[in-house]
Design brief:
The protein is mostly beta strands and 384 residues long. The protein has 4 helices and 26 strands.
């Protein structure tokens, strides 16, 4: 008999005792009864999935059938289903698997049970290349670490630094330049016992990559090293632990990508020099000559550049600019489609009339005598 309310039923009586055979009772057919469905319980287990893989098939187990009945033969049986509401590209994490549905004649379903789906991250990639780190072999700047060997402009790398073999997470991210190198600033001077670990950062889909550990060593400053707020462009003496190095630092990038004019005047002779070591005094002379309008021109913007926290930047002289050009690929981030200003007035016409300035195109290695009102690129430099 199927489930329902006020269902007609027949009550059958049984007489017992020694004289039972002498009596007879009619079955009672006037009764009704409510017949409730049997409760079936649906359960689901726990599953794991790796990001990007197909979603697992969640199996729902149903128990509680009356004797001699089961899911195969139960009338009108439709199995409950389970879902976590995820896709193959859902972020790694733990999701709840919930059961819904389910039907069968004369049965009801308890679908309150839940499971968990754990989506695991893909294995993180290893850093390619040979990573090398060093600090300046000088009495200053030993908190500056140059690191080479990365892919150009690589992103998503993090580092941790060890002092006395205890690693302290310090750099969650840093910029790797077009040369595949970067700079780290340590809170205290480095030594040969300082270690740094690099790895590909964890993301929503990938676990952290395996760590690449390096130890540091002192080295003499070299062209292309990060140092003094920029990148070493010229060295005038060798470096040892007992002496300081002197030279020229180039800023990491140009003042603007569109360039600046040198001056608004083409007939004022400032009186600048072409020699190495004269860029700073040249720049100050140019600013004094331009007066209140100097803020919009090349020398002013070079002098007021403050990269690395330094305030002694300037526009390079002719010889300083030539030195920079000779190693511009080691410095990086120069334009090869435009010319760069020097701070040196120069002309093929004599006597000099104040109209032109020495400039240099890095891509074609072409020197020019450019009008002061032209718009050319500016790369600040400083001495160290």
């Amino acid at each position: 008999m199927d489930v329902g309310i006020d269902k007609p039923v027949t009550v059958y009586y049984t007489i017992s005792g020694s004289d039972a055979g002498n009596y007879y009772l009619n079955n009672d057919t006037s009764r009704t009864a409510s017949i409730a469905p049997v409760l079936l319980t649906a359960t689901v287990g726990d599953y794991t999935q790796t990001y990007g893989e197909a979603i697992p098939t969640f199996l729902v187990d149903v128990t509680g059938f009356v004797p001699n009945d089961n899911a195969i033969i139960a009338s009108g049986y439709s199995s409950p289903t389970a879902t976590a509401g995820t896709t193959s590209t859902s972020a790694a994490g733990i999701y709840t698997i919930r059961i819904t549905g389910g039907s069968a004649r004369n049965y009801s379903f308890n679908v309150n049970d839940t499971g968990t789906l754990t989506i695991q991250k893909l294995t993180g990639a290893a850093i390619s290349g040979t990573i090398d780190g060093y600090y300046p072999n000088s009495n200053e700047g030993q908190t500056i670490i140059n690191v080479t060997g990365f892919s150009p402009n690589q992103t998503g790398i993090e580092a941790e630094i060890a002092y006395y073999d205890t690693f302290i997470p310090y750099y969650p991210d840093f910029a790797i330049d077009s040369r595949g190198r970067t700079i780290l600033y340590l809170p205290s001077p480095a030594s040969t016992t300082t270690k740094i670990r690099f790895r590909v950062k964890e993301t929503s889909t990938h676990a952290p990559g395996p760590a690449t550990e390096i130890t540091l060593a002192p080295r003499p400053l070299a062209i292309g090293d990060y140092y003094g707020g920029g990148i070493v462009a010229y060295i005038s003496s060798s470096s040892t632990l007992a002496e300081e190095t002197n030279g020229l630092i180039a800023a990491k990038s140009d003042i603007t990508t569109t360039g600046l004019a040198w001056s608004s005047s083409t007939n004022t002779v400032v009186g600048t020099s072409a020699d190495y070591g004269k860029g700073l005094s040249n720049s100050d002379k140019i600013m004094n000559s331009s007066g209140a309008s100097s803020f919009s021109f090349a020398a002013f913007n070079a002098r007021y550049y403050n990269g690395g926290g330094y305030n002694d930047w300037f526009l390079p002289s002719k010889d300083e600019l030539i030195n920079i050009h000779s190693v511009f690929n080691q410095i990086g981030n120069f334009s090869t489609s435009g010319a760069y200003w020097s701070s040196t007035e120069l002309s093929f016409r004599l006597p000099y009339d104040g109209s032109t300035v020495y400039a240099l195109e890095f891509g074609s290695n072409t020197a020019s005598w450019s009008w002061k009102t032209e718009t050319l690129l500016v790369r600040p430099v400083r001495y160290f």
